[in-house]
Write a structure and sequence with these properties.
Elements: E1 2-3, H1 8-15, E2 18-22, H2 27-38, E3 42-47, H3 50-60, E4 66-70, H4 71-77, E5 80-83, H5 87-96, H6 98-101, E6 105-108, E7 113-116, E8 119-122, H7 130-137, E9 142-145, H8 152-156, E10 165-171, H9 174-184, E11 190-194, H10 201-218, E12 229-230
Parallel strand pairs: 1-12, 2-3, 2-5, 3-4, 5-6, 6-9, 10-11
Antiparallel strand pairs: 7-8, 9-10
The structure holds NADP nicotinamide-adenine-dinucleotide phosphate.
Length: about 230
Amino acid sequence: MAAAQVPHQIADEAARLTVGILGGTGDQGRGLARRLAMAGNRVIIGSRHPGRAAAAADTIGSPPHVTGGHNEEAAGDADLVIAAVPWEGHADLLAQLTGPLEGKIVVDCVNPLAFDSRGAYPVPVAEGSAAQQAAAVLPGSTVVGAFHHVSAVLLLDPEVDTMDLDVLVLGDDRHATDLVQALAERIPGMRGVYAGRLRNCGQIEALTANLVSINRRYKAHAGLRITDIEA
Ligand SMILES: NC(=O)c1ccc[n+]([C@@H]2O[C@H](COP(=O)([O-])OP(=O)(O)OC[C@H]3O[C@@H](n4cnc5c(N)ncnc54)[C@H](OP(=O)(O)O)[C@@H]3O)[C@@H](O)[C@H]2O)c1
C-alpha cells in the first residue's frame, strides 16, 4: 500500500494559513470556514456585500477566528483563497480580483452543473473545467482544484464530528497541491489525495452530478474514498 502523507513542514505551513473564501456566505463557503476555523486556521469570509459576510462570520460563532469582508478584502488579506461561488458568477468575480489574488494559491471547488427534471448534469466549459477557467483568468495565481465532493450539509452539521471522505486535489504545482492536501487534512476525517494535473479537473467537477444522483436515490450525503493508499 502506498502512502499519501504530506510532509510535516507542509502540515505546519497549512496550520499557519489565513484562508479567504470568496462567496463565503453560501453553504459551501460557510461550511469550509467553520471546519477550518475549528481546526485553528484564521478565516476571512468574502462577499459582494460586506454586511452579509460579517453576518455569516457571526453565525459561525466560536472559535473566534472568522471575520467577514468584501471579496476583495478576503482575497487580499488571506494567504490562500478558496473560490466558493456559483458557476454563473465564477469568471466575472475572479476577473475583478486578479490584483489581490496575484501570487496566491486559489483553490477552486466550483462544479459547473445544471439541473432539470432528470437531475444534475455537467455543463460544457470552454476551458475544460472551472479550475482551468480560473487559471486562464488568473495567470498570476496558482490554481488548485479541491473540495468538489464535500457536502456543505455535513460541513455545517454540528452533530458531525468527522468528515468521512477523501478530497481529490488537482494542480500543476507540487508545493501548492501538497499544501492544499495538508489543509484538507486539518479537518478531522478528511484525507487529501493528489488526483492529477489541472487539465484533469473537468471529470472531477462533472462527477459531482453522479454524487447528486446517488444522494437523491439513497437520501445520503455521499463522498469518495480512494483505495490502496495509506492515510
Ligand atoms: N453546496 C455544496 O454542497 C457544494 C459542495 C461542493 C462544491 N460546491 C460548489 O461551491 C460553490 C458554492 O456553492 P454554494 O452552495 O455555497 O453556492 P451559493 O450559496 O449559491 O453561493 C455562494 C455565494 O456566492 C455568492 N454569489 C452568488 N451569485 C454570485 C455571482 N453571480 N457572482 C459572485 N458571487 C455570487 C453569494 O454571496 P454574496 O451574495 O454574499 O456575495 C452566495 O452566498 C458552487 O460552485 C458549488 O458548485 C458546493
